[in-house]
Every structure is written in structure tokens, then in C-alpha cells.
């Protein structure tokens, strides 16, 4: 099995003291940082920097022939984006501070506790990862194109917001930081999790688990596993999903439903990168990337005290929000065609076509179940079709006899203690909303409002003129 290297860039350790290089490499490897290179001769630094993709250098200050300070000024001139951490002797703190002024990220005294150096390195790696992501994001936004469009081919969309989500996902593909995917039920969050996993190029599997309603003990057992004899009935050691997802991705769905006790366990896992199988006092390192999803609004849950602030803070570093289907109506015809095709294939039916008016009529429906709801309707329609035309009967309950959405009282409410809007105010608001939903497509908006396109155009002109006058 391919062993994944982490971080995505090399960490170069430079010190003439071979024993220090060895012990520091071991400490780092134990913490999961295995993309390392050591160098005991500072004169070799330039050739190593040229050959390898180095992102972070741990540099000793006192070395024979070439001092660390000299190496630092060379690095800052030739490789200004590379992060440098200085390791100094006890009596060299002044020079170390000077190095920070010259652009070193931080300094540590060699005799300090290795954990302190490790914390500094972790901070530097995180900062470097964010810098690289920022650069990737900038170039993605500027280029407006995807580097690996094939991986996104299962997600059908022409929506600009979705494309910017895709570009963002590409730019964070290689970090090991968690990713939070939010969006209403059925918008395609699991599809996005699959893409994040594929883009990461990790050799391990994608392991998915729905954590809604899972009690805290079951959560710990499922994620961390248990040792033999951990509790009555635990007659065998059980591997947890974190371990099963090693070198891959662990996808936790419905994270908003996680109990507060389990939230603490997840937070610790993310912060420390370590966990204890139930009944074991030997910690294990997490080698998987965590992706979580929720259809709930975590900000609101947090305000109600149902979701931990610190966990939300940790998760939202990389956050993507998938817009609901009603906000990307241009996707409707594409998705209808896509689902018809896949349903025909699965049901062994000859190709079917949908009437053009179907997507226009459906554009007035709010799709609370999003793409999943549309998929179920289309599959139902395909299964009921006997000719080469799609049988639209399953869609009829959503629309009235004029092919317009049936409004219920609960969808339009006017609080009794407020003044009613005027008819003209209401009409303007409706027109604005229809234009927004139709992405400024006047024919589509006109169909939604039940008026002709010229009538809408006239209304828009009048609205513009009156805004001008005011
Ligand atoms: N843009 C899309 N293109 C193609 N299929 C889609 C798209 N969005 C969603 N689907 C399909 O709709 C169904 C629901 O998608 P998915 O399970 O990813 O949604 P979800 O947001 O994870 O839902 P939930 O919140 O209920 O878990 C799946 O069958 C998926 O393949």
C-alpha cells in the first residue's frame, strides 16, 4: 500500500549534530509528519532546496564553517516563501531574535522540551498550509477552470456558485485539515465528500458513517474501536473506523446531531490527532482526514447551546455550503435529463425525453428535498412511462391545473399585528423574487409569475423608472 506523505511539502532539518537530527525525525514521524529530509552539512542546503519541494526548514544556528544565520539570509533571499524555524543554543537568544527580525518564523532553544519545538513546528506547518492554500485559491479563482474536471463529472451543475465551490475544494485538496460541508438535505453533500476524498489522492479508503442519534458510548466504540475485555461481551479487539480510514478519509454525516459528549471526543481527536480505543491506555495516531456534513445550521445550534463553539471553530476553517436546488434553477433541466438517462439505464428502458415545459413548470416548486427529491420523482416518472415520452403524472401533485405551484396558507403568512403591504409593493417584491430565482431570465420569471414576458419586461421598466424618481 502506498504510504501517504505528510505534509504536502518537505520539512528539511539542518543540523551538524546527527543525534539531534535522528531524535527530532523520530519525534516528528511519531506525530505523523513523515515528509522529512535531514542534512548535517549546511553547504548542501542549496542543492537540496533546488531538488526538493521544501516548505519548512528547521535550522540550527551553530554549525561549523557556515552559520545558521548565513543559511537563513540565503534562504530568505532565494526562497522567501519557505518557513524557517531557528534552533539556537542557550546563550544565543540575541542572535535568534535577530533571525526572527530577518524573517524566521520562530526560534527555540535546543535544550527546550521537544514538545515545545513540536508545537512550534505544528503552528508553522499549519501557517504554511494556509499560505499554500491561499495561493492555490487565488490562482483557481483567476483561472476560472478546474484542474481535474473528471473528478467532478458525477455532480451535474452549470451553477456559478457550485463551480466556485468546486474550485475551492480543489485548492484545499491536499491539506489534512477537516472539511465541513453544509447544505439542505439532498443537495449532494455526500457527492462532495466523495470528490474531496478522490482529489486528496490518498491511498486509503473513504469510510462513511452517519452519526445522527448515535449514543456517546457507541460513538466512541464505532470511531475508536475497543480492546479485548474492554467491557462485558468485548471478546475480541475491534478496529475503529478512524483506523479503517487510515491514509484515507473518514466522512461523518449529520454532525449537527452529535451529542455534546461525543462532540468533546471529536474535538480532542481533531486537536491532538490521537485517540484511545475503548479500554486501552495506549494512544493511537489518526492517519485519516476528517470530512463532516450537516443539513443543520451549526451557527444556530451553537447559539442554542447544542453545538460546541470550539468544535465549530475548528471545523469551519474549511467550510463549503451547497446551495439548495431552488437557488440554482438552471440546473433543473440538466438534472432532469441526467436522472432520466440513469433511470432508463438502470431499468433497462429505451431512451425517454421529457417535455421542455417540465423544467419551467418545476422551477416554481421549492424542492425541500432538493436533488434527491427530484431524482425520486424522475425515477417514478420513468418507471411509469410506456412510450418514448416521459409520463409526467408524478409531478402533477406539485402543480395546479395551470401548471403553477399550489400555494398553501402556511407558505404565505401575514402577521396580524402588522400593516398589510400594498398590492403594488407586493407585486414588486414578487417580481424581484422571480427574477432572482430565474437568474434574471425574463421568460422563466414570467412563467413563474403567470404573466407574459412582454408584460414582465414592461413591469421591470416601470419599477426601474420609479426607483430612479425616488
Ligand atoms: N448535482 C448533482 N448531480 C447528480 N446527482 C446529484 C446531484 N446532487 C445530488 N444528487 C443525487 O441526489 C441524491 C442525494 O445526494 P446526497 O446523498 O449526496 O445528498 P446529501 O446532501 O448528502 O443528503 P443528506 O443531507 O440527506 O445526507 C444522490 O442520489 C445523489 O447522487
From TrEMBL:
<dbReference type="GO" id="GO:0043565">
    <property type="term" value="F:sequence-specific DNA binding"/>
</dbReference>
<dbReference type="Pfam" id="PF00158">
    <property type="entry name" value="Sigma54_activat"/>
</dbReference>
<dbReference type="InterPro" id="IPR027417">
    <property type="entry name" value="P-loop_NTPase"/>
</dbReference>
<keyword id="KW-0805">Transcription regulation</keyword>
<dbReference type="InterPro" id="IPR000847">
    <property type="entry name" value="LysR_HTH_N"/>
</dbReference>
<keyword id="KW-0547">Nucleotide-binding</keyword>
<keyword id="KW-0067">ATP-binding</keyword>
<feature type="domain" description="Sigma-54 factor interaction">
    <location>
        <begin position="155"/>
        <end position="383"/>
    </location>
</feature>
<keyword id="KW-0238">DNA-binding</keyword>
<dbReference type="InterPro" id="IPR058031">
    <property type="entry name" value="AAA_lid_NorR"/>
</dbReference>
<dbReference type="InterPro" id="IPR001789">
    <property type="entry name" value="Sig_transdc_resp-reg_receiver"/>
</dbReference>
<dbReference type="GO" id="GO:0003700">
    <property type="term" value="F:DNA-binding transcription factor activity"/>
</dbReference>
<feature type="domain" description="Response regulatory">
    <location>
        <begin position="10"/>
        <end position="125"/>
    </location>
</feature>
<dbReference type="GO" id="GO:0005524">
    <property type="term" value="F:ATP binding"/>
</dbReference>
<dbReference type="GO" id="GO:0000160">
    <property type="term" value="P:phosphorelay signal transduction system"/>
</dbReference>
<keyword id="KW-0804">Transcription</keyword>
<dbReference type="InterPro" id="IPR025662">
    <property type="entry name" value="Sigma_54_int_dom_ATP-bd_1"/>
</dbReference>
<dbReference type="Pfam" id="PF00072">
    <property type="entry name" value="Response_reg"/>
</dbReference>
<dbReference type="InterPro" id="IPR002078">
    <property type="entry name" value="Sigma_54_int"/>
</dbReference>
<feature type="modified residue" description="4-aspartylphosphate">
    <location>
        <position position="60"/>
    </location>
</feature>
<protein>
    <submittedName>
        <fullName>DNA-binding transcriptional response regulator, NtrC family, contains REC, AAA-type ATPase, and a Fis-type DNA-binding domains</fullName>
    </submittedName>
</protein>
<dbReference type="InterPro" id="IPR009057">
    <property type="entry name" value="Homeodomain-like_sf"/>
</dbReference>
<dbReference type="Pfam" id="PF25601">
    <property type="entry name" value="AAA_lid_14"/>
</dbReference>
<keyword id="KW-0597">Phosphoprotein</keyword>
<feature type="domain" description="HTH lysR-type">
    <location>
        <begin position="439"/>
        <end position="470"/>
    </location>
</feature>
<dbReference type="InterPro" id="IPR025943">
    <property type="entry name" value="Sigma_54_int_dom_ATP-bd_2"/>
</dbReference>
<dbReference type="InterPro" id="IPR002197">
    <property type="entry name" value="HTH_Fis"/>
</dbReference>
<dbReference type="InterPro" id="IPR011006">
    <property type="entry name" value="CheY-like_superfamily"/>
</dbReference>
<dbReference type="Pfam" id="PF02954">
    <property type="entry name" value="HTH_8"/>
</dbReference>
<dbReference type="InterPro" id="IPR003593">
    <property type="entry name" value="AAA+_ATPase"/>
</dbReference>
